[in-house]
Amino acid sequence: MPKLPDLDTIALLRQVRDRMDRYFAEPLDVDSLAAHVHMSAGHLTRQFKRVYGESPYQYLMTRRIERSMALLRRRDLTVTEVCFAVGYQSLGTFSTRFTELVGVSPSTYREQGASVRPGMLPCIVKQVTKPIRNREAPHDGTAIG
């Protein structure tokens, strides 16, 4: 198992992660995130993946999809509006990435919703609606939430 970075580096990585969580809908790239914490893009990517198990780009895309899932469950925005609200510039890219992580298209997810019930604790909602990484979602239309 690779050695984890020192605590100062972990604190910088947490700043990067927090920045992506806070500004997920804005244009963010690894170069600017790295510059913000005075690291090279390559070093940031390696260290981030070592600590969090995925690259900064993958983390940001997952955050965007999670937020889009919440917006789609509200049903008051179109899929296109959700796409742009979470920071995607292309509806095609958004739909492809959403389908890869969730297992159904954004429009299907919006129509069918997720297995979220009124009064469900937020920690349970987060677990039920967490996107699946690495194309693990079944593509037969059965995976919702």
UniProtKB/TrEMBL annotation:
Presence of the UniProt keyword Ligase in the record:
no
What's the superkingdom here?
A: Bacteria
Record-linked SMART domains: HTH_ARAC
Record keywords: DNA-binding, Transcription, Transcription regulation
The residues covered by the HTH araC/xylS-type domain are 14-112
Picking any one GO molecular function of the record gives: sequence-specific DNA binding
InterPro entries annotated for this entry?
AraC_XylS_family_regulators, Homeodomain-like_sf, HTH_AraC, HTH_AraC-typ_CS, Tscrpt_reg_AraC-type_HTH
Alphabetical list of SUPFAM superfamilies matching this protein: Homeodomain-like
Query: What is the name of the protein in this document?
Result: AraC-like DNA-binding protein
Organism the protein comes from: Rarobacter faecitabidus
In the record, what lineage is assigned to the organism producing the protein?
Answer: Bacteria, Bacillati, Actinomycetota, Actinomycetes, Micrococcales
